[in-house]
Specification:
heterodimer; A: about 350 residues; mainly beta; Jelly Rolls; Immunoglobulin-like; 2 domains; six-stranded antiparallel β-sheet; 2 helices; elongated; B: about 60 residues; alpha+beta; three-stranded antiparallel β-sheet; 1 helix; about 40% strand
């Protein structure tokens, strides 16, 4: 094509360049911890990566929270809440929420807390048998600024895309490091967490003001019947005054972004790991994470199905532990009996057993 | 998080054989976890809050 044919307007400065979505895993395709959980009381579950569902203060309701294959056109998955025990009347302190936490390093570009704060647009797909007014909250981690954006679910059991443009927050304290910068919250909340000040930034002294509702705005209680279902997907937060189509990254890219916050070893097969016998009762090995993690992660190791071998013989294991945990790797120690110092050793895990999980979620 | 136990864990410096306090072995929501001493780790933060409650103690390493 001749250069003269190129539309100069398409190269204008207002063209949106590069990656737009500040939300990681908004397509709900990555579910490293499992795909379905009983929410339980006073509990947090991650049915998909980077999105938690929480019954924060032991509400009487309960739900199955899962990665669903019910999704709008162009998507494969959604996050689903399927109520299994109803909470027909929310107590003042009840909190049932979906929350996504964006790292401070990733919102630093918004210049929040300054006069140069940027306008953002939040868009997402939502579907429920419940219709009416509800909200999504934007909160900082210091709980001194909140923006409660209202929207309406118009039709039952129908995917709807919501687009909400939010001016920048020019004050408040906003993290710009590897701690939580911004929280997005959807759900049902008791009166302790409600406000009548909607669609504007407010100073919020309550630690958990998550959703706001004026008393005459009839908030949806998504937990008031076991018939209720709530789905959400396609969550996008972008620096822009209007919503653009969802930025669908490749599966591999999205997985890698999620692994900054959670990762694990292989799921199956008798995966073997090389260790060395530092002493007759101590074998050490090293496990590297797929990518450097946000913070030094919590390491969980499966308690069964682990075996230690050296020089062709099975070695009696006393205990396993993780130590020297850092963002890149950790040292695995197998305390044992009757090995020979200086030899190599081999640790394996049984089929369908993960050796470790590493959690550096916000 | 439901924390039911927490104990410091020592590690051995493989260069000189000395030991040092390395992490906390905790039972959280029924699962044993190794929690690094990192103020930016959410489990470490929760353990610190848990330890402020009367009757809760992070046990010393064995």
């Amino acid at each position: 094509m001749a250069l003269s044919k190129i539309q100069i307007s398409s190269l204008a400065d207002n063209t949106i360049h590069g990656r737009r979505n500040l939300v990681i895993g908004g397509c709900m395709r990555i579910a490293q911890r499992g795909t379905s959980f009983d929410l339980g009381n006073a509990s947090i579950k991650y049915p998909v990566d980077r999105f938690l569902v929480q019954d924060q203060y032991s509400g009487t309701g309960n739900a199955t929270v899962s990665q669903s294959t019910t999704a709008p056109d162009g998507f494969q998955n959604s996050l689903k809440i399927d109520v299994t025990t109803a909470d027909t009347s929310l107590d003042a302190s009840d909190v049932y929420k979906i929350e996504h936490r964006i790292e401070g390093l990733d919102i630093a570009q918004l210049n929040y807390g300054t006069s140069a704060a940027k306008t953002v647009t939040l868009s997402f797909y939502i579907r429920s048998n419940k219709t009416g007014n509800t909200q999504v909250a934007l909160n900082n981690s210091n709980n001194d600024r909140a923006y409660i954006a209202t929207f309406t679910i118009d039709s039952a059991n129908t995917w709807e895309r919501k687009e909400l443009t939010i001016p920048g927050s020019t004050d408040g304290t906003w993290n710009s490091d590897n701690q939580t910068g911004l929280r997005l919250r959807w759900g049902s909340f008791g009166s302790n967490y409600q406000t009548s000040t909607l669609n504007q930034w407010i100073t919020d002294s309550s630690a958990y003001v998550s959703q706001a509702n004026s008393r005459n705005d009839s908030p949806i209680n998504f937990f008031d019947s076991t018939d209720n279902e709530l789905y959400i997907t396609g969550v996008q937060l972008e620096v822009n005054s209007k919503a653009t189509p969802f930025e669908m990254l490749s599966y591999g890219e999205t997985l890698q972004l999620c692994q900054r916050y959670f990762s694990h070893s292989g799921d199956g097969g008798q995966a073997g790991f090389v260790h060395s016998l530092y002493a007759s009762n101590d074998a050490y090995g090293n496990f590297s994470f797929p990518i450097p993690m946000r913070a030094n992660p919590t390491v969980t190791m499966k308690s069964s199905g682990r075996n230690l071998y050296s020089a062709g013989a099975s070695i009696t294991i006393v205990s396993f532990s993780a130590q020297n945990i850092n963002k890149h790797n950790f040292q695995h120690r197998a305390a044992c009996i009757g090995a020979t110092a200086g030899r190599a050793a081999h640790v394996d895990v049984d089929f369908n057993t993960r050796f470790y999980e590493a959690d550096a979620e916000l | 998080m439901n924390i039911t136990s927490a104990q410091y864990m020592n590690a051995t410096n493989l260069h000189d054989g000395t030991t040092y306090q390395d992490n906390i072995k905790a039972t959280i929501d029924g699962t044993e976890m190794f929690v690094p001493l990192d103020p930016n780790n959410r489990h470490y933060q929760a353990i610190q809050e848990w330890a402020k409650i009367d009757g809760n103690t992070i046990e010393e390493a064995e």
